[in-house]
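User: Structure please.
Assistant: Input sequence and predicted structure:
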Amino acid sequence: MKYRPLANTGVFVSELCLGAMTFGSQWEMIGALDQKDADALVHRSLDEGINFFDTADVYSSGESEEILGRSLKGRRQEVVIATKVRGRMGAGANEVGLSRLHIIKAAEASLKRLGTDYIDLYQIHRADPETDIEETLIALTDLVRSGKVRYIGCSNLEAWELMQALGTSEKRGLESFKCTQSYYSLVGRDLEHQTIPLIKDQGLGLLVWSPLAGGFLSGKFTRDESPEGTRRATFEFPPVDKEQGFDIVDAMRPIAEAHDASVAQIALSWLLHKEAVTSVIIGAKRMDQLEDNFGSVEVTLSDDEMTRLDEVSEIPLGYPAWMGTLGDDRLPGEMRDIAALARSDGEEKEAAAGE
């Protein structure tokens, strides 16, 4: 297992992170693992060198945090635990969102469920349009300064929302997000247009959720077959352009065969080869799935294989990104003439200066 820096924190996390969404009885479509099964996955992950575990208070209404905390008992100092806040945790009007009231209450509850004195990485699960981001950041800053949280992060924000938060933190001297946890996969590359350029520019970490697109990239799904009993068979999430998606899977199969690997391992390896990625969050219901995921770190894709996968999975540039790709020769009539004249004037001035 390799370890990568979490932004500029000086903390190193394993390139694979075990996600605990499958832990707990209430989300049967996701996994509904009990303590015994979760223990087996967590302990095997620790043996493999994974030191990074991710959960959220809303996963099975807190059961996931409770189970993960018990699984890590006695190993707390060896690991980095991430959890999230934002989702509804009760029927009350204020038991949801990113208000100071809800964040402080939710953090205390997560600490108790996890059985720990501190949360290494506390993330907002998504934006809350009802709460000013400054209010949220002040509450998170207070949690850090009290010692109950080490670092803060975000998840599922638009690029402009993330930049707004970073600007607010800098302006007000508040704690700032160190990373974003975002959906990214071979069939979901929207992140590359706005968010990845932003996080590279700002030096943030990127934690990837659903790297196999809810199982679509596992290799089990084909144009002719959708296996029963799988999560995606009954829960189409994240959304996928299936026409392109099957083309991508078809392109992965010969690469997988060449590496004596599974299709899923190729999908994970592609992400691990991406410079912006800090850690890829894997989730499993069974030990064989977890073991297969582990194998992805041993797959080294060639430049040619990466190019083939990049090309088959490419998505069109949105506006205004495509404007930056236009050269002068693609400008219409009069605008092209003006551009040519400007170049000519510039060349004449350079020549005169050289004389």
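The longest strand covers residues 149-155.
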